[in-house]
Amino acid sequence: MFGLDGRIDLANLALILVLSAAIAAIWSMPLASLAASAIAVIAFNFAFVPPRGAFAVDLHQHALLLVTMLTVSWIVTLLVARLRWHTAQATAQALRSDQLREFAEALRMADEPVAQASILRDAVRRLSGAEPTLLLSSPSVNTDEASAIHLLGSVAPDESSGLRLCLKEGRPMGPGTGRHEEQLSWYLPMRGASGAFGAALVRRATGASGELRNHVQVLCDQLGAALERSDALRSAAAAREQAQGHALRNTLLTAISHDHRTPLATILGAASALHDQDERLSLAQRRRLAATIVDEATQLSRLTDNTLQLARLGQVGVALQRDWESVEEMVGTVLRRVRQRGPQHRVKARVEAGLPLLRCDAVLMVQLLDNLVDNALKHGIGDTPVEVMARRAGHSVLIAVQDRGPGVPAAQRRRIFDTFQRGDTDAVAEGGDDRPRPGAGVGLALCKAIARVHGGELCLRARSNGGSSFEVTLPVEECPEGTSREGDEGAPP
Length: 493
Known about the structure:
Elements: H1 10-27, H2 30-47, H3 60-109, H4 113-128, E1 133-137, E2 148-152, H5 157-169, E3 185-192, E4 195-203, H6 210-259, H7 261-276, H8 283-313, E5 323-325, H9 327-341, E6 347-351, E7 358-360, H10 362-379, E8 386-393, E9 396-402, H11 410-413, H12 425-431, H13 443-453, E10 457-462, E11 468-475
Parallel strand pairs: 6-8
Antiparallel strand pairs: 1-2, 1-4, 3-4, 5-7, 8-9, 9-11, 10-11
């Protein structure tokens, strides 16, 4: 302004002062900018307004110029200050919106309530600068300590009472809430649609505003909704498992009552004939009736074992009696059982030498192979043999039971392992064998369940020259040192 003095008139020189006042208002506090504008106008009057070097004013228009300069400078300062305040509010609102979005995303990724509460603690700590304390509760809200799932953070006895009261009533307490204003901290509930699922103790920082409390309350309500959603999902899963358990039990009872009726009636009829007509029956007839009783009782026993094992494997957290077992021994056990039931059955085995030991439940695995062999014998054609093959397949052991029967129609292959699914009579007719094939339709479903609880898989493959191959793949685990192997020579032929 001193450099331009004498080159431009006084009014234009005054515009430079107004410009500088506006620039100063952008970076300075409002009160400092107002004071600086007033001092600048007084200095302008002293340095440039005639008479110079004095605060007096000769002309009224100069006085009007000074008043206008001061007024415009103050108006610009106040407008810039208001604009800065709105900008700060918008920035803070954007940051809070981003925090809410990130907080909601973090809650969605966390499953456990304690992990979700830790996310809230971190967010509140960044906002308030103090460590909050959280109390999580079960949906049945009461003040008993036994109802609390977890308490995160340190708390004094009176603060603990405040948390329980806030949890019970589901309303905030503390400064600015209209309830218990004398408290130094905020007690904020974690509210869901059906009530409060927790409470947060937020130790207030000096100068904390109601906006901070409202923002923290929104975060708490988000956690409350997440806890309510998690509890609803757990309740739904438990109800679904319970319903599935009831449905499985009802289906098993229906299957038992239906499929056990025929062998029981046959056994009862044969036993009655032996009891009432023993003297009139020949030795061959008595032996035939006794053999019928044995066969039907054996079939009834197999049906019962399969049904009970399927029900046991359908339970959550079933424990297996695992041990290191030899494939050769398990295959040999199945062959002995089959030949005891009927020496006329032709079953062959081809077991690769040097197979590793499997860590499995031998009883279940033998039942799996026994069911597959029995199924192959039922659906075989004439005296065609059934083959049991075991070999190494990469990091697994493949055990296959193969037959030369009519095979499984393509429409049934996808659901052949479902519970209570039985082969169509059309498939029986194709093989030219009209023998009744009893069963509850749980054998293959049980085999599938046994394979899966061992970490393996059971599948059906149609053979090129007719027949089916049921193949179970079991993972090979590293055998500990000192575990002996038996049966390396292979299974019985």
